[in-house]
## 1
Amino acid sequence: MTLLEEESLKLTEVQRLEGHTDRVWGLAWNPATGADGVPAILASCSGEKTVRIWQQRSPSSTSFDCKAVLEDKHTRTVRSCSWSPSGKQLATTSFDATTTIWEQNGTDFECVSTLEVLQQTSF
């Protein structure tokens, strides 16, 4: 690899997204955003049992703002988040053995379903 190639691969921090008060375990880019003039949207999930939705200020900006905090549905660390291909639903999974499905309605997010793993008992 040449020096020029190494320089072009160098990563630099453009913004530190601050808001979570515990470790961030996962994040996911909304696949329906970030192109064709639509600002990018990112979801991050954390040990404080919340998910934060971040939106790019404008398509040409490198700055993001927290647009929503999804909370009160998980009772333990939210470990993973993933957008649907359409970008209209977000699934979040937690160590509390639940998966919550959120649906975006304008700028708000609504919990539309919670899937729970039931403990199997043997007879």
## 2
Amino acid sequence: MGEPLPTDLPAVSLADYAERARTVLPPDVWDYVDGGSAAEVTVAANRGALDRVAVLPRVLRGVDTVDLGTRLLGRPYAMPVGVAPMAYQRLVHPDGEVGLASAAGTAGIPYLASTLGSTPVEEVTAVGAEVWFQLYWLRDRALVGDLLARVVAAGCRALVVTVDVPVLGRRPRDLRNAFRLPDDVVAANLPDGRDALAHSGAPGVSAIAAHTAASFAPALRWADLAWLRERVDLPLVVKGVLDPRDAVEAVRIGADAVVVSNHGGRQLDGAPASVTMLPEVVDAVGDRCQVLLDSGIRGGTDVLRALALGAAGVLLGRPLLWALAAGGERGARDALALLAVELTDALTLAGCADPAAAAELRTLGP
């Protein structure tokens, strides 16, 4: 294994932040961030499948500078990356959602604020970043309507509906740790954010899973998304799609983008790696909506792989929580700057002057 990397040296890959985060986080919080569902087969599959995607570089293309700029949902961004929606970011550092959103704003990329954020969405948008709001469907539709009104009033640029969490996946690490939220971390966007369920530990029980089961509606249907599409005049993104048939249905109800995702291996264990299904989803929707990828992205080479397979961009999750844990907002800014360097190198070596050119590359695998 070798000696741990010194934490006072600059990180040279996003993986460096994982090691640093593990040294500063309580073990149960590390497990909550790092862990997946059941036997964590899908967690491993995400990484393995990405590693099996080989990109055929082009040569003699005259590329000496790379422009990382792209357009997602019709808006310009500095690179084809967004910050994935992740709950309770103040668990890992006091800067929490505000710090990570500020880092995203500095990087010129969208920040996806979670329904289960530990900072109210109004405080997140106040930092000036481009914020998309990720919605979990609540049991009380009136509360969904109230939350949508807040999201629009706060100035969010898009609505991202997560559709792969009818119930929270069974996560053994959290069960063994009897994981619960500390008293100072709450679901700040929900009226019952201080619900005792999320803060009460018991052996063999995940308090977060209990709170989620009480709050979320398990029987979400396409008709609910159609209702949402009619109600909100924002770009609509459907996150958590793996089957191309579901992607086609999302387009039918008016989605502007879909996110091919298995929730980072935290929902149905044994589901395929997200990148494995990406080409089929891209083929199924054609040019009728954009396709994004998340789950397992760990650096610039992975972004290149996704672009070459037809994605418009990716959502980056755990590495940014690691960076936030290790260094707060500054750590997250450094991680995103490092990702830009990695992606620039990857595109240059592949003979691509911009992200659009990567779509013309051939791939082998996954």
## 3
Amino acid sequence: MTPEQTRALDDRVLAIEQALSADDLPATSSLIADAPTHEVVAVIERLDARRRAVVYRLLPKQRALEVFEDLPASLQGDLVDALQDSEVAAVFADLDPDDRVRLLDELPASVAPRLLRGLPVDERTLTAAVLGYPQDSIGRRMSPEYVTLRPSVRVSDALARVRSRVRDAETVYTIPVIDDARTVVGVISLRDLLGGADDDTVGALMSEPHTATATDDAEDAARLCADLGVLALPVVDSEGRLVGILTIDDAVRILEQEESEDAARQGGAEPLRRPYLSTPILRIVRSRVVWLFVLAVGATLTVQVLSVFEDTLAQLTVLALFVPLLIGTGGNTGNQAATTVTRALALSEVRTRDVWRVLSREVRVGALLGLLLGVLGFAITSVVFDLQVGLVIGLTLLSICTVSASVGGVMPLLARAIRVDPAVFSNPFITTFVDATGLVIYFLIARAVLQI
């Protein structure tokens, strides 16, 4: 949003909060009546649970459904707790099957069966099919509502079929083409259908299909959809039969969630999975405290290293002045490498089998960075202190940068190899590891150069 739009939204939120505080429901209703759906969503995301439910109930039925569909699944779950059963049942029945599954994942186990029982039989069957796939698979995020065509169908008949299903399908802009065994043999766009002659067959106009398997990781399938630049990606079972479709908007949503998760873990916290202002304080604390304990325990390695080299520090106290500089530089170098490689993994630019190539590149990158920083550190330290201390700092920067970049580049690949989120192995753990090893390198070089 532009600064002007942000200010307008902030003013609207403030006005709504003031109206709610004064229990002025007519004023609140008028404030949200003319607001675009995305603004109403933004307003609801910034309110507490009670006010969120009040604002939602003031929306007309159709508008309420639009807003509900655009809310994060976590806030949808909060609203389910606040609304009456009849209100929840009406909204739940109007959701698409994949959106229902996202909501069910956020609800207590005791609530989900009750909501499912209230669905019509056909909708319950579609939803249950999506629920049957593993939690992080694309099958869990696909839509089972789609239009299919056969290769032998004429364009005129195909368009008639699309028109008859346009309100029920998730999308009609990309249509899978299947054979008698429901195997995907091609895809055809609505544009190609409209541009074809009435007597042309679908098979003559269709293109080669790209598909994802229902058990594939959701992020991998979403990345494939985005990389191909397609509006929808057919999802098939292990035998190649069509079971669903992934639309580009759902793919983008998956990628945004994964980016948020990686960013949080690289910063040493768990993802909130909901807007910051609507997240309870205790949940924010829980998302951070475990990591802080882990990193605090890891930091004891640094303390142990300092205690081992206590005599070296006592003989030349000037060495202590450079400890923050050196471990900070090492941590930053490792984090840069880890962030770059983690991103390359997410984009499928590197694989775990590329570990030696990545290590080779990062050794050279780290050595060049260390050489540049080392020469600068040597020059400045030699002038301020003496030549020997400058040599220690220069050699240490060269060594630490080389080691840090190498470790930072390889750790995400090792994490992927053992099926751990690479972001977990990134900044926090690398910083802790490099702090300890960097100090060992520093004091060993100091002992060798200064003969202490």
## 4
Amino acid sequence: MRKPDDIERLYLDFDGFFASVEQQADPRLRGRPVGVVPFAGTDRTAVIACSKEAKAAGVKNVMPIREAKQVCPDLILVPQKPDLYRRAHNALLCEIETVIAIDTAKSIDDLTCVLDESGQRDPELLAARIKTAIATNIGTYITSSIGFAANRQLAKIACKQGKEESRRLGSYGNGLAIWRPSDMPAPLLRVALKDIPGVGASMIGRLARNRVFTTAELYALEAKHMRKIWNNVNGERLWYALHGYAIQAPPQKRGMFGHGRVLPPEGRTIAGASEISRLLLTKAARRLRRENFYAGGVWLWLSVTDGSWMGKHHLAVVNDDQAILSALRSLWARVRRDYPRGVTIFRVGVTLYDLSPADERQIDMLDNDDADRRKWEKVNSAVDALNTRYSGTIVSLGEWKPPAGGHAGGKISYTRIPSAGTSGDGKLEDDDPGTRSG
């Protein structure tokens, strides 16, 4: 495996992306503490993103609104706008592309680039050109931190450390860290173990049981030992990444399609939650068809008063709304049996899983419903074509009444790039691909 002798990767992370986009779009919010919330009109949810001013006052992401207002009484709560963030993401990428080609953008607020000779020779100039392009052509309120290193993993860690250093120096939004191979591993060894991507809370415990408590101790392990601790090849891959090898992540495979939503107070009944879940699952089914997959099961998850409820329903390898929504109705019938007196539901999630590519479909011989499936697939093809043509849900199987705000499934995404779908009021909004395996 090749080990670069110079920096080869740039990792860029936008600072407080969702709140900073709100400030850039609305001059009234600039310089003020801003907290982005799921929807307006209630203090019973959480701040899901906050501006640098709010962070300076002690507000944190995923902090209950009431607690955030106690910490920062002047906090301005702004309902999320998924389509605004998607459009900002696309505009920012266009500006960055005028300076350097983007290699990968795996989420809405970060990206990586492969450096050419000029970028390797003068990374400070390259970073300045990127930030100038954004400030000049989009605005000064959307800022970024940038890390340079031999591979993506190290560049990502460097970026985070550069952001933290800029915050300590009082220049938040101007983070920059350059980790040349000749300087390694000294800057890496100063990083806390919990700040290494791939080392989560459960892995911290597993490493502790193997007497590994610091990044220096992790770095000193052998590759095979890390593979044994992780119990898979990811441990060994991490070893090579931390030691500066040019390692690429394997291509991800689609594992499922899904949506989740925190429910507004008026929608926290079984009836309200089931209606919203129907809209979410319809959106997931549209993406399933658009990406040429069939599903073999539906999963319903609820966050309820006393914990959670989960249920799965087998599908006969389908992708049409009639079959998928029929399975969802069966799952809700189970919910009603389990909670005959009703239950308060705070969050609902739906997922289509056990995927089959359209050209690899395996039909159960005992189902004998191919004729019905073909009929409903033709119906859905016509419906999808109409909705796509008019950029809105003008035809649907059953009534289409999105909750307040018009977003059936639109939400802030921290781990993926949203794509344009359609909402019930004719606006474009985010689609949530759900969890991917690989």
